[in-house]
Amino acid sequence: MRRALLVSLIVLPLEGCHLGPGLDEFPFARRPEGVTVDASGRQGNVAGELLEVQDAGLLLLSTEPGTASKRIVLLPYGAIREARFGALGATYALKDGQPPGAATRERLQRVSRFPQGLSEAILRRLLDTHGQAEVQKAVPD
Q1: Per the CB 3.0–4.6 Å rule, which of 48, 84, 111, 112 could disulfide with 35?
Q2: What is the pLDDT at residue 109?
Q3: Quick one: pLDDT at residue 44?
Q4: Which residues pair with 39 in a beta bridge?
Q5: What is the pTM of this model?
Q6: What is the mean pLDDT of each run of 10 residues along the chain (141 residues)?
Q7: By the 8 A CB rule, do 47 and 37 touch?
């Protein structure tokens, strides 16, 4: 009996210990929004919320410079000189027009608004909400 009590007194406080990052370090884990993307390329800068990671590039909800207006844009990987994702660090960064490797792509999907991907119906509703007929390219060709 004394031994069980002693073990309980030692083990119970350890159950409350926690290792690794907490929710305070990942605000997007508490809200439905995806991580913020800040990207630069040959044609200028693009910033917005990461909606989805696609084969061709990143689908963003981007704010029009100087306005509160938002639009759905595709940022092709080839147009990215450098992209940073909130305060997530270098393991998430993209550089030199290269698409993400498998591990980076998986990490980026987890911090996007739609980690499971966007259905056509949801994409259509998003486009309608923002007054768009189709997804725009974030940078001109």
Answers
A1: 111
A2: 93
A3: 84
A4: 46, 83
A5: 0.75
A6: 65 57 54 82 87 95 81 93 86 89 92 93 95 86 48
A7: yes
Q: Quick check: 36 and 49 in contact, CB under 8 A? A: yes
- Give the rounded distance of the alpha carbon of 53 from its chain centre: 8
One-letter amino acid at 46 equals: V
Residues in contact with 88: Cβ distance below 8 Å, sequence separation at least 6, in sequence order: 35, 111
Cβ atoms 27, 33 nearer than 8 A: no
Q: What are the beta bridge partners of residue 50?
A: 60
Maximum CA pair distance of the chain? 76
Q: How far apart are the C-alpha atoms of 92 and 34, rounded to whole Å?
A: 14
**What are 83's strand-pairing partners?**
39, 94
Q: Are 110 and 103 in contact (CB under 8 A)?
A: no
The sign of the CA dihedral 94, 138, 85, 56 is negative
User: How far is Cα 109 from Cα 87, in angstroms, rounded to an integer?
Assistant: 16
Edge-first strand listing for the sheet containing 94-95: 94-95, 82-85, 36-41, 44-53, 57-63, 70-76, 136-137
Give Cβ neighbours of residue 122 (< 8 Å, ≥ 6 apart): 114
